[in-house]
Amino acid sequence: MSTRIKVSIFFLIVSSSICFRLYNINYDDFWIDEMITFWVANPEYSFSESLNNHRDIEQVPLFFNLITKIYFQIFGYHENIARYLPAVSSILSIFVIMDLSRTLSKSNAYLLSGFLIGLNVFLISYAQELRVYSVLFLFTSLSILFFFKYLKDKNNFSLVLFSGFTLTSVLLHPFTFILICSYFFFSIYLYLNKIKVAKINLFLIIIFIFFVFYYLLIYSIESSGKPSWIEEIDLKFFTNFFFSKFFGSRIVGIIHLIILVYLVFKFIKFKTKDHNIIFFFIYLFLSYFIPIIYSLFFDPVLIARYLIFAIIPIVIIITHISFKLHDKLRNIIITLIILLTVGNMTTEQAIKQFYKERWILKPQIKKSLKIINDSEFKDFKIKIKKMPNEVPARKTVLNYIDYIAKEEKLIINYIKKEHNMSSAFWVICIYDLNKNCNTSLKILKRTKLNRVDLILVKW
């Protein structure tokens, strides 16, 4: 393949990937988890106030919300720029994975790796969401990249960057424990194969100690506790291991899973060893094994977005083993992967939005408020089911509503006690915070929006 063709493919991958992540990035309003980040990261609050808000409602570490808070302090507290933080992180991840792929092999596998990361519908979706997952994916990728750069060149600068990016990943999410365990097991594998990596083992021990210290002593103080809403693992999970979510549909996910399993068996038959790929086998296995064991014996923790980093070993294994096959089989596998990815993209909103109106996926908060503003009755309250964090959940929604009201110059009024009202008022019922939107009050009008019921009632 000529240099000109490689550059053209590279440019096409990067430009289309950026376009899919940035186009219509603010089409939807925030959903409840994004509202939480938007509330906790509000720069008007002091650090201690943000910490208290985080502790009242969040179940992930504070670090991402702290990054977002600093981001807002620099660029301003605006909804329309908020999602650019995860979006840019997702874009940078494409370059990091391609660099990682080139570090592992001199083949053109890096182009296929970039293609699969850039056009991955799961990553595109979370690139447009103000949550930790795209940022976690970036720093996990950087950690792995500089891990292999150090193994390759033994450069101390690579070691320092590896340590920094790994520690940052630790601060972002507890599932980084899987990455640390993968490094340890891979180091054991290298030792058994008489490959010396003593210095990096020392740094891994320090990082592990930091992880234990942070999650035993600090995380329990700064967060509200374990998520109670995650369902137990069912048999359906073992039929596709979230591949249907990672790659867009059940059929496409199953085909990718079959390709992965087939390539693993082909790799086992190879006479030559590729030590680097072993790490990704370990990482992929532990990405599922550790959460499954924890879920079975302790509390359920297994959901697709918590395993967003599992896409890294999946892509690396598929692309690099594919390029080790003989020409005919390699071309068949690569063509099939490309056709599947492009074909699936045509059924997704990422492409459909260019020629038809995009679906509304998240609660229509702005439309609800504009209906209230344009009506005769300006008072409203928020319906939230009784739960341990009901008060901070209400504050989360109110922070977002107050922001919208100021930006849109709406004349609306939040009420706390409806029994003091002599006239009609609106009830905003967000599905994510309620089992149902029933009310015992007299209903004068009900407007159903996406994931929101707007109900005009009278006491």
Question: How does this structure look, described?
Answer:
The protein is an alpha/beta fold. The chain is built from 20 helices and 5 strands. The termini are far apart. 63% of the residues lie in helices and 6% in strands. It has a 5-stranded mixed sheet. The mean pLDDT is 92. Helix 2 (32-40) crosses helix 20.
Key features of this structure:
459 residues, alpha/beta, globular, 20 helices
Shape: globular
Query: Major sheet: size, sense and barrel closure?
Result: 5 strands, mixed
Global mean pLDDT: 92
Across the major sheet, the strand order is 2-1-3-5-4
Unreliable residue runs:
none
Distance between the termini: 74 Å
Helix/strand-derived category reads alpha/beta
Q: Can you count the helices? A: 20
Q: Report the radius of gyration as a whole number of Å.
A: 24 Å
**Helical coverage, percent range:** 55-70%
Number of strands: 5
Please report which band the strand proportion falls in: under 5%, 5-15%, 15-25%, 25-35%, 35-45% or over 45%.
Answer: 5-15%
* H/E element order: HHHHHHHHHHHHHHHHHHHEHEEEE
Write the layout of secondary structure elements.
Layout: H1 3-22, H2 32-40, H3 47-57, H4 63-75, H5 79-82, H6 84-104, H7 109-118, H8 121-127, H9 133-153, H10 156-172, H11 176-192, H12 198-222, H13 243-247, H14 250-269, H15 275-297, H16 311-322, H17 327-345, H18 349-352, H19 365-374, E1 379-383, H20 390-408, E2 413-414, E3 425-430, E4 442-449, E5 452-458
Parallel strand pairs: 1-2, 1-3
Antiparallel strand pairs: 3-5, 4-5
